[in-house]
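Z., the sequence and structure:
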Amino acid sequence: MLSTLRQRINKDESGFTLIELLVVLIIIGVLLAIAVPSYLGFRDKAQKTAAAADVREAEPSAEAYFSDQTPQNTYTGMTIAALRNTYDSGLSTAIDVAKAETVGGVAGAGYCIHATVGSHTATVNGPGGSVVQDGAACA
C-alpha cells in the first residue's frame, strides 16, 4: 500500500482528485447559502430606505411650489412635472404621484407625494406630515 502511494507521489501527475473538487464545491455552496440571504436582506432594506428618501427629497420642492403660488398659497395644480421642471430637475424618477389634496375642507391645502422603489413604497402627506413606509398610496 505504501509503495503504491510512493509511486503515485513520485509520478509527476498534476491536477486535482475528484474528492478535492467536491470539497471545493461544497465550500462554495456553504458560502453561497450564507451570502445570498444577507444580500437579499441588504437589498430589501436599501429599497425601503431609498423610497423614503425620495419622498423626503421632494418635500422642499412642494413647499417652494406652495410659496410661489399667488395671490394665495396653495398646492393646487402641483404635479411631478411641475416640481421637476421648476424647482428640482434631480427629483427621483421613483416618485410616481405628487398632487394637491383637500385638507380640512380647503382644496389645495395639502399634498401627497408617493414613491415606489422595488417592492417598497413611501408616502408623505403634507405639509408637516411624516413619511409612511409601505402604507397606502395617494388617493
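The chain has one domain: 17-133. The CA atoms of residues 124 and 131 lie 5 Å apart.

Let me know what you think.
H.
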